[in-house]
Write a structure and sequence with these properties.
Blueprint: H1 2-15, E1 41-45, E2 51-56, E3 62-69, H2 83-90, H3 100-110, E4 113-118, E5 123-130, H4 134-147, H5 152-169, H6 173-185, H7 199-204, H8 207-217, E6 223-229, H9 233-243, H10 255-260, E7 269-274, E8 281-288, H11 297-307, E9 309-311, H12 323-330, E10 336-343, E11 348-356, H13 362-378, H14 382-398, H15 403-417, H16 423-431, H17 435-445, E12 452-457, H18 465-470
Parallel strand pairs: 2-6, 7-12
Antiparallel strand pairs: 1-2, 3-5, 3-6, 4-5, 8-11, 8-12, 9-10, 10-11
Helix pairs in contact: 4-9, 11-14, 11-17, 12-13, 13-17, 14-16
């Protein structure tokens, strides 16, 4: 009632202005965007070389803090492959300040989440908690990274856990195919090794290899302490100075370090693991892609989105957007396919992952997939580029939902490129990509380029490498 009376009085006031008072006509104004410094990513480098980066959201009640380390399986040797992942498992098994039970109880009492993961180029330890508990979480992360006990009993227990994990990974066909793809594309190079390492290494890794890996790689110049959410930048810098000043400033120039920083060479080749007990053919085909720093990074993602994805099991299978998905569905060539653009610090893999139970039509499936790649070099429409750009922008923005996702984005960008592009800056870069840019990218990176092939399962009818390589330079 009060609001109705207020609206009535407002209307009456506008209709009958006081004598001598002239009111300007009402006009609808445009909102003015305000760029608040608090919403930008801030970065500070400490004296020992540790970088502290934050994205402060003043209204967030929780925060994610974590340490991104420029060291993963790529920083290992052939003999120590698997060490980085082994260390990740041991991180929560007790330190010189906290037993495993005390560590678990402390996290449980905070209601926080503590986790870690290892990739080919990074190792990450992070925690999510209420803002008031961030100092305690930073203390725990610093303790884990600098004071892990690495007890022999814990090493033996985790050895069995990792061996079981390795067995589970071997049952995931997609993981197996992509591990083989890396192994053949980057043969005899650190980037070609798996993250878990071979079973032989897992069985033989000792405390010596683990402590050496920490000493050689867990150094301030290769770490970024990230905060996202309700943690102010100045506070996290203070916590970093309190907890991480004893980190070694730089990594020793070991053979493994120098090898990990050497540019990886892409090798056109194939590997096939035939197993007729698997009812499908699982095939990954890739050209050399782009690095995180490459000027073509976002163009490669747009090109990937144009090729698209497909899953026959989905209700919208006939209408999944890309030309290739329509052709594959109409002719029932595949169960699914997924285009990908995987980037590393100096190179990448751009390609497609195909799964099909139409075992006598695998040549058709591969032919039409590579024919679509060739089409990108000569005939890309504005409509499909705009669709791909819209999908890419939406996926990037949706992937930044939550403080952990934002922290992941900050850590990954700063550890690989040294800076972070904001979502707005990324949108503007993507908006400026045209069909000419996509065709130029395809001409340089796809047309008549060597390919790496990894095939697992019922792959007897996959044609030989030379025949498939020939499809990379088709004339329409």
């Amino acid at each position: 009632m009060a609001s109705r009376r207020l609206a009535l009085n407002l209307r009456q006031g506008l209709k009958a202005p006081r004598a001598g008072l002239s009111l300007p006509p009402l006009r609808r104004g445009l909102a003015t965007p305000v760029a608040s410094p608090a919403l930008k990513t801030q970065s500070t480098t400490l004296k020992n070389g540790l970088t502290v980066a934050t994205h402060y959201s003043p209204y967030a009640s929780t925060s994610t803090v974590g340490v991104w380390i420029d060291a993963g399986s790529r920083a290992e040797t052939e003999e120590t492959n698997g060490t980085a992942h082994f260390l990740e498992h041991l991180a929560f098994k007790g330190t010189t300040k906290r037993t495993q039970h005390q560590l678990e109880l402390e996290i449980e009492n905070l209601g926080a989440h503590l986790n870690a993961y290892t990739s080919r180029e990074n190792t990450v330890y992070f925690a999510k908690s209420l803002n008031d508990d961030v100092p305690q979480c930073v203390d725990i992360l610093a303790d884990i990274l600098q004071n892990s006990k690495l007890e022999e009993s814990a090493i033996e227990r985790e050895r069995d856990v990792i061996l079981r994990e390795s067995e589970e990974v071997e049952k995931q066909l997609e993981e197996v195919v992509f591990d083989h793809l890396h192994a053949t594309a980057f043969q005899q190079q650190p980037l070609g090794r798996t993250i878990l390492g071979p079973r032989k290494n897992i069985q033989e890794i000792t405390r010596t290899e683990l402590t050496n890996y920490i000493k050689n790689n867990y150094t301030a110049d290769r770490m970024v302490l990230v905060g996202a959410g309700g943690i102010p930048h100045e506070q996290l810098v203070e916590l970093a100075e309190k907890n991480f000043t004893n980190l070694p400033a730089s990594s020793p120039q070991t053979g493994a370090f120098l090898q990990s920083k050497k540019r990886s060479d892409f090798i056109g080749s194939d590997v096939r693991i035939r197993d007729d007990t698997i009812p499908t053919a699982n095939i990954a085909i890739a050209v050399e892609g782009v690095s995180w720093n490459d000027d073509d990074y976002f163009t490669a993602l747009v090109a990937q989105a144009i090729v698209g994805n497909y899953d026959k099991a989905l209700g919208n299978a006939p209408h999944q957007g890309s030309k290739l998905s329509g052709l594959v569905h109409k002719n029932d060539l595949a169960n699914s396919f997924m285009s990908f653009s995987t980037s590393y610090s100096d190179t990448g893999l751009w390609g497609i992952y195909l799964v099909s139970d139409q075992l006598t039509r695998l040549d058709d499936l591969i032919h039409f997939a590579l024919r679509e790649w060739s089409r990108l070099s000569v005939n890309v429409t504005q409509a499909e580029v705009e669709r791909a750009k819209a999908q890419l922008k939406a996926s990037i923005l949706l992937s930044l939902d939550g403080t952990t996702a934002v922290a992941e984005d900050i850590g990954r960008q700063i550890i690989t490129t040294g800076t972070r592009l904001s979502p707005g800056e990324i949108e503007r870069v993507i908006d400026n990509i045209t069909e000419k840019d996509v065709m130029d990218f395809a001409n340089r990176k796809l047309w008549d380029q060597d390919i790496a092939i990894s095939a697992v399962g019922s792959v007897e009818d996959v044609f030989d490498y030379a025949r498939i390589r020939g499809d990379m330079s088709r004339n329409f």
